[in-house]
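Quick entry, no commentary yet.
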Amino acid sequence: MPKKIAVIGLGYVGLPLARLFATQYQVVGFDISQSRIQELNSGTDKTLEVSDDLLQAVLVPDFHDAEKGLLCTADVRDIQDAAVYIVTVPTPVDKNNRPDLRPLHSASETVGRVLKKGDIVIYESTVYPGVTEEECVPVLEKYSGLKFNVDFFCGYSPERINPGDREKTVEKIMKVTSGSTPETAQEVDALYRSVITVGTHLAPSIKVAEASKVIENAQRDLNIAFVNELAKIFNLMDISTQDVLDAAGTKWNFLPFKPGLVGGHCIGVDPFYLAQKAQEIGYYSELILTARRVNDSMAGFVASQTVKAMIKRNIQINGAEVLMLGITFKENCGDVRNTKIVEVVAALEDYGMKVTVFDPWADPVEVEHEYGLKILTGLPGFTAGASPVLPGSAGQASAEGQLQEGIIRKYDAAVLGVAHREFLHYDLRSHLKDRAVIYDVKGVLHDADARL
C-alpha cells in the first residue's frame, strides 16, 4: 500500500474521499482555490458533505510525526512525493452541451509535472469511455517525460458520491475499480477495498469502468424523462400524475420514478458525454438526447403550469410576486451546480412576474456569483428547524436581518422547487395572499393547489 496519496480537487467528491483515506493513510488534499484550502484548514466544510468533527479528526499540519491524516494545500510542491494521485475534478458541459475536459486536462498537467517512476494516477471524474487513456494519459506523458504502462500507470474508479446523503456515505457505496495493467488493477482495487466497507467491483478494463459510470446516470435520466412526459400528457387529461404512479406502483416490478427537474452535476450532464462519444464513432443516440430534451423542457413547463393555476384564480400575472422555495439541485443539500430552478425563475420572470428565492441551505454568495441571483436564506416567521447556513457567514447575517424585520411579505404564488426538510411543515400560507397559488414541483405539500 502507498505511504502517501494525493487527492486532486477537494469538492463534493474529493473531500469525502480524502477524509476517508486519511483515516488509514497520509493524504495530501490539493485544490487550486486558496479560499477553499483556508476554509478546510479551519476545520469547516461549507458543502456540508463532511462534518466538522470528522474533518477536524483527520487534519494534520504536516506528516513529521503523523503516520496518517489529511494535509490540505494549494501548493503543488506538497504533492510531489505522493505515490498515488487521485483526480476528482468536475467534468461539466459547455453552453452547447459539449463535454468540457479543461478541468481534467489542467489537473493532469499538474500531476504530470510531479509524476515519478512507479506512480499510479487514478481518475474518478465522470467521463465517456476512452477519456483516461486517450485524453489524460497523453497530458501526463507530455509533462512528466515518462512512458505510460512502463514508467507510470493509471486506474479509473468512478465517483459515487450522493450529495446531501448522510446514510449512503462514500465508504458505504460499492466502488467500481480498474487499472491499465492487470497488476495495476489489483493494486487499485486493493487500495479502495482497504477503506470501502461494502467492497469493490474490479472491472476488466478502464473503458468498461468509465462506461459503467456514465450509463448509471443516463439510465436515471431516461426513466425520469418518461415520467416527465407522462406528467405532461396527464396534465392535458386533467389526471393526477401522482395518483397514476401510485396505482401503477402496486405492481412489484414497476419502477418508482417521479417527475421533476433534472439538474446537478451528474444526471443532467453525463448523458451528453455518452452521446458525444457515440457521435464521434458514427452513431447518433436518439433516445438519450430525446430524454435530455424532455427533461430540459420541464423548467418552462413548471412555469407555465404555475401561470395557468394563477389565471384560474384571476390573479394578475404581470407584476405578480412569486416566492420560490429552494434553489439547490436537490433537497437537504447546498449544491447549486446545474440547478434547473434558475431556469424556472427565468421563465416566471419572462411572464413579467417578480420572483423572490428563499433557500436556507444555499450559499447566497455562490448563487449570486454563479447565476446573478440574490436569494434569501431566512424569512420572517420561518421557524421550521435550524438553518444550516454556516455560522458567521454573510448568508447567516442576511437571514438574521430578515428575521428581525418581523414583516411578513405577502406573495401571489409560491413554487416549492426543492423539498428541503425545513419546508415540509412550514406555515407557507402565512406568506401568501388569500387567493394565492401553491405549485408543488416535488409532490410533498398536502395543501398544494397544483402539482407536477
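second:
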Amino acid sequence: MALFGLIPDRAPAAEFVPPAGESPADAARRAALQPAFPTPRELRAQAVHRLQIGLFGLAAMLLIVSLANVIMDRAKQVEGATASTAPAVAVSPSPSPSTANDPLVDMGVAPELPVGGGGGNEANGAKPARPAPRPAGN
C-alpha cells in the first residue's frame, strides 16, 4: 500500500540535534546531506516493482516472437500453395517478342520499340532509325 500513498513509507525520523555552537543553517545543511536509508518496506516495494517490470518484459518478448512465428508460418503456407497451383511454364531457348516485357512501356512512359533493338534490323535489309535533325534556329 505504500506504492499508492495510503500508508506513509517512513516513520518521522528523530530530530537531528546539532552540536553545540553550530548555526541552524549549518545544522540544516548537514541534516540534508545525511543519507536516508530505505526501510524494509521500501526495499520490498522496489523488489516487487523490478519483478513486475521483468515479467512484463518477458511476456512482451514472448508475444512478439510468437507473432513473428505465426506470420512466418502463414507466409510459408501461402508460398507452398501458390507454388503447387502455378502452371508449369516451358522455357524456350530463344526469347520471343511476346515475352519481352518492358516496365516503362507497360506504364506508358516510354514508346514501344521492336524487340531487336536499335541496330538489329540491318540484317533484314532495313535501315537503322536515326533521330530527326534539330532546327538550327535555336
